[in-house]
Amino acid sequence: MTRLPAPLTLSCPAGSGAVRTYGAHVMSWAPTGFDPVLWVSSRAKDSVGEAIRGGVPICFPWFGPGRSGDLKPAHGFARITEWKLADRTSDNDGAAATARFILTHEDINPQLRSVFPHPFRAAYTVAAGAELSMSLTVTNTGPTAFEFEEALHTYLSVGDSRRISIEGLDGARYFDKVTQQQQEQAGPIAITDETDRVYYSDGTVQVKDPAMGRTLTVAKEGSDNTVVWNPWTEKSKAMGDFADDEWQSMVCVETANVLDNAVRLDAGESHTMTQILSVSLNSLLR
Ligand code: TA6
Q1: pLDDT tens figures, 84-98
Q2: Catalytic residue among 75, 105, 153, 246
Q3: What ligand 1 atom has the least distance to the C-alpha of 177?
């Protein structure tokens, strides 16, 4: 297997991160003075053609097995394809260091292109500083309309997933992929078992992490779904690229447009989805 080259660093006084051209995959980010915010498995693969277990994989143009339930590879081809680096800056006055990536249908392996035979252009801008913003713009460059799903499958690093509280989804409808039931969220989310839920929400989510004494905020624009995932014990054991106990140190909160919120683009139309991560220390008084 061909090992992946080292990621590009995005560094400025306010924070730093790393991103790969492979999958335009953000591997790490931390504001200056904070512990890493993104999580990567100790067993993560790093070879061409393999998905990377951690950071922020880009799920596009479908999510999971797709709405038909039979599409491969899981979560689409964007995260296992080399994107072109269009430009890269580091902002010395401390605001942010940025990188912009481009992917078109011409970059896609021909076998995979048959699954999604639509001309498209995806532009992805990453800005790492005191916050981490990731913005994905998809343009229909062909003559006929198409639909796609998308998710920024964000792995967040937490001190103990059994003690976190995920706020901002109270009252939101969700599809529970574990029970295959439609539910409505009542209050904050606690992780007490395998959790795999597609929420119908366009709002900001906060992950309160008492073990690390901090709150992670996931703000977004252009997204009508938030996916929350923790594999818990049995699913962790079943994944070769995930150590058995690592479910305790991570939770996925994913900015997305999936299922019946798939995006439809007419010829020439574009759609942008943006996720902005930030961190704050919990007040000792609260
Ligand atoms: O976003 C949650 C999810 O769809 C889960 O169902 C699980 O499959 C997870 O993504 C990881 O998917 P992956 O293909 O990266 O192993």
Answers
A1: 999 998 766 768 999
A2: 153
A3: 6
The Cα–Cα gap between 179 and 177 comes to 6
The residue among 38, 59, 47, 50 whose CA lies nearest residue 122 is 59
242 lines ligand 1 (CB under 6 A): no
How many angstroms does the Cα of residue 64 sit away from the middle of ligand 1?
6
To the query of whether residue 105 is one of the catalytic residues in this protein, the response is no
Q: Tell me what percent of the residues of the chain surpass a pLDDT of 90.
A: 92
Tell me what the mean pLDDT of segment 97-102 comes to: 97
- What pLDDT digit, counting tens, does each position of 120-160 carry? 999 999 999 999 999 999 999 999 999 999 999 999 999 99
154, 229, 250: which to mutate for ligand 1, most atoms within 8 A of CB? Answer: 229
Indicate whether 284 pLDDT > 70. no
Rounded distance between C-alpha atoms, residue 119 and residue 15, angstroms: 36
For residue 189, CA distances in Å to 76, 158, 174, 184 come to: 28, 14, 12, 11
Whether ligand 1 lies within 6 angstroms of the CB of 152 is answered as no
Residue 151 CA to residue 69 CA, distance in Å, equals: 16
Nearest-angstrom CA–CA distance, 154 and 162: 18
Task: Indicate which atom in ligand 1 lies nearest the CA of residue 235.
Answer: 7
H or E element in which residue 181 lies: strand 181-184
Cα–Cα distance for residue pair 284/238, rounded to 1 Å:
39
Query: Which domains are seen in the chain, by residue range?
Result: 8-285 (2.70.98.10)
Joined together, the tokens standing for residue 2 give 């061909």
